[in-house]
# Entry
Amino acid sequence: MNMIGKKLSDFSILDEAVIEEILAIAKTRPYIFFDMDGTILNSEPLHYEVVKSLCQGKKIPSMEETYGMSDGEVFPMIQEALGLNHLDEYLTKKNEALVKLIGQSDANNIRHRNIHSLLKRLKDSDIRLALVTASQYEVTHPILKHCELDCYFEKIITEREVDKTKPDPAPYLLAQDFFKAQTHECLIFEDSPTGIEAAQRAGIDHVVVKWFEGE
# Structure
């Protein structure tokens, strides 16, 4: 029977005291895997603005209903209004607009204000880092580069690299395999129920973060 990864802690803020606590935990966890959206950055407002722009002048349900929903959930609601037949068509249009908007946005309004400090101090402590996200490859790399966070991660895993994404454990197991790490050497930082489930099913202990909610 596979072990279930357990929650080690949860953090509602990210300040100097919390960074010190994380560094203490990391002394026995040399491989740390970070989720992206809601954990190191918050791009949800950008997604919302892009969908709103694509649907401007179209007859659709209330835009507010789409906030925080996945692309797969939003598409059926706006498919007819946009005149699109397939999810891939929608993702292509949305990603093009999103990457453009990212480039026009202030990175300080996307990344957490203390995330640079946390990632740098982990890396300076010889902790090896991976980013594991269910987001599209075409968006993940531009937003990490724009926010100047890509330099911290030895491995970046998006939906392109795996057949199954969160809540399936495959993305986190791929990160573990990349480092050839033992399960007890790894730690995951997550904010969402699907990500937490993926961590649990991977058998890797995790930290739950809600520090964007505390901003």
